[in-house]
Amino acid sequence: MLKQGSTGLVALVLLLLAAGAARAADDSKYPDWSGGWGRVGNGSFDGVNPQGPAEKPPLTAEYQARWEATLEAQKRGEISNNPVERCLPPGMPRTMIVIDPLEIIITPKTTYMLASYMMEQRRIYTDGRSFPKDAEPSFSGYSIGKWEDSEGKGRYDTLAIETRLLKSPRAYDPSGIPFDDDNQTVVKERLSLDKTNPQRLRNDITVEDHALTHPWTITRYYQHVKDPKWSEYICTENNNWVQIGKESYYLSPEGLLMPTAKGQPGPDLRYFNQPAK
Amino acid sequence: MVRRLSIGALLLVAALLPALPARAWDDSRYPDFKGQWTRADSAQFDPTKGAGLAQQVPYNEEYLARFKAIAANRGSGGLDANWTAGCLPAGMPRAMIVYETMEIIVTPETTYIYLSYMNEFRRIFTDGRAWPDYIEPSFAGYSIGKWEAGEDGKYAVLDVETRGLKGPRSFSGDGLPLHDDDETIVKERIFLDKASPDRLHDEIVTIDHALTRPWTVFRTYKREHNPFWSEFVCAENNNQLVINGENYYLNNDGYLLPTRKDQPPPDLKFFKQPPN
Question: Beta-strand (E) ranges in B30-173?
Answer without folding.
Answer: 36-39, 101-106, 110-115, 120-125, 142-149, 155-163
